[in-house]
Amino acid sequence: MHQSSPMSDADLAAAIAEGAGEILLGIRHRDLLTGHLVGDVGDAMAQAWISTVLRRHRSRDAVLSEEAEDVGDRSVADRVWIIDPLDGTSEYSMGTSDWAVHVALTVDGEPVAAAVSLPAKGEVFRSDEVPVADGPLTGRLAVSRFGHSYHSAAVADRLGMDTVRIGSAGAKAMAVVRGDADAYVHSGGQFEWDNCAPVGVALAAGLHCSRLDGRPIVYNNPQPYMPDFIICRPEISEAILDAVASPW
User: Fold this and answer.
1) What is this structure's pTM?
2) What does the pLDDT read at residue 1?
3) Residue 125 near residue 201 (C-beta atoms within 8 A)
4) Which of 18, 51, 122, 196 has the fewest CB atoms within 10 Å, counting from its CB?
């Protein structure tokens, strides 16, 4: 019995993502804190609250978080919460809306309950309730606010896609889930907490999620570095995989 409270994993993930978002919005209240200071306080306070909630409600589960030291035998545990208390700290510090909170439970390396909140937009996406992404294609590719990576440029060129610049990883992934973009192609290196919850929500929405070479994405690795991945509409997944395999 892993649960120490009756709340389901899906409900807990969503409640944590929403609650941490409310805390982060409060920290930005009336710009009493700004710049790097608001980002540092946001990271620390969101992490403290989330870790305390998980100890209270899932005391037997392991946790991997961007803002906590990765210690112990986390990588051999079957149930692991992978957390990013504040995805897009720079966007949050600048006062924009393109930042997120990521909460995911993985079982044997697979996200089984995931939630991504975009607090400044008032949105929470949860894997047990997200609708299937089946609207018309937009022809848009979500990219970093700094522009293309090598592989995303190849995809845009090969498929004739327009780009939309979005801040954090969670915000880019949820643009695809929401139907505002058709794909998010990343090859600049991330860590598991940057994309685990977004991938969990995207998979539940029926989207294609894989590494650039088409392999499935597996979480809770001993080294949590995640160099690349694709989140896209399934009807263009083969074309995107072809484009990143032979970008020249």
Assistant:
1) 0.95
2) 40
3) yes
4) 122
